[in-house]
Amino acid sequence: xxxxxxxxxxxxxxxxxxxxxxxxxxxxxxxxxxxxxxxxxxxxxxxxxxxxxxxxxxxxxxxxxxxxxxxxxxxxxxxxxxxxxxxxxxxxxxxxxxxxxxxxxxxxxxxxxxxxxxxxxxxxxxxxxxxxxxxxxxxxxxxxxxxxxxxxxxxxxxxxxxxxxxxxxxxxxxxxxxxxxxxxxxxxxxxxxxxxxxxxxxxxxxxxxxxxxxxxxxxxxxxxxxxxxxxxxxxxxxxxxxxxxxxxxxxxxxxxxxxxxxxxxxxxxxxxxxxxxxxxxxxxxxxxxxxxxxxxxxxxxxxxxxxxxxxxxxxxxxxxxxxxxxxxxxxxxxxxxxxxxxxxxxxxxxxxxxxxxxxxxxxxxxxxxxxxxxxxxxxxxxxxxx
Length: 386
Description:
Layout: E1 4-7, H1 26-36, E2 69-74, H2 78-83, E3 97-102, E4 110-115, H3 122-125, H4 127-133, E5 138-143, H5 153-170, E6 176-181, H6 184-195, E7 209-213, H7 219-229, H8 231-241, H9 249-254, H10 261-266, E8 271-277, H11 285-297, E9 302-307, H12 320-327, H13 351-364, E10 374-380
Helix pairs in contact: 1-11, 5-6, 7-8
C-alpha cells in the first residue's frame, strides 16, 4: 500500500494521489482495545458558553461574503418520522432548531448540510461554518437534534433529513447536496444517507457527497467502549437504539456507517472524505479506518487523511494516550510530541477540521478528483526532528 506523507501543512492544490487498495489497521485495532481498558477523553466535548456565538478568522472555507443572511428555523421531523421505521421516542420532545445561511436573491444549485457532534448547539458553534460555506450558488444548513445533549443517532438523522428537505423546499434550484458530519455527527450523517433512501421513489439518497472528520462509524464498538469508560454515554446510545447490541443488534447496524456502505453506494453516494487522528481519544482511529475500508470495497471513491502531530501552537485535542495514562494516574509521556487528538468542531483551524473544510471547498470549487477509487495521506504538522 502506498501512502503519501505530508510534512507540515498540506496545500489544497496538492490534494492528489495515486489510487491504491486499503491496508490493514492493526494499530487502530490495538488502539481500540486500549480504549476498552478505560478512557474516552475524560467526558463530553466542550460546548460554547451560553449566549456566545463563535466566530473564526481566516476560516478554511474563506471569509464570509457580504450580505450573507442566517435564519433560525424550527425543524419538525414528524412527517419524516412517519415514513421511516420507528425509533424510540425522545426523552425531550422539544422541536430542534436549525441555522440556515444563504445569499438573498440567488438561485443556489448546491446545499451543504452539517451534522454536529455530541452536546453541541448549532446556534453557538456552527454559524461560523454555515456562513463561511455560502457562495452565490451554495447555501448551508445545520440542525440541532431531539435529545440534543444525549446520543441521538437515529433521531438526529431524521432531524437532519427534515432540515435537508426544508432547505430543498426553500431553494428548489438545488441539484447537489453535500453532507458533513463530525464525531457523533459521523454516525448521524451516515444514518441520514441510508434512511433518506426510503423517501425516494427510486431509492436514491438525498446526499451525493459525504465529508466525515473523526467519524463514529460502528455504534456497537462505541457502546462497548463507553460501557467501560463513559457509562452515561453508553446508556444514551442504548436509549436511542432501543437496547444494547445484544438485545437490538439490527438497530446498531442501522446506525453504523461502516456496516452500510454497500447501501450507500446503491443510493448514489459519489465521494467520501475522512480525516482522523491516530491518537484520537474520543472516537478511536479504527472507526475511521473501518469506514474508509468498507466504503472503498463498496466502490465509493474514498480518501482518508490520517493526522499524526499538530503544530506547536495548536491545541491537540483529546488524546488517547493521555486518556489511558490518566486512567492509571500517570502523566502522558507522549505529551511533548504534540500528537493530535480529537478535534473540537468549534475550532476550524485544528487540522482535522481544517483539512475536512478544505476538501469540502475543493469539492465546491471543482478541484476534487472524483475519479480515484481510494487514496490516503498521512499528515504530520509537528516540529521536524522531534
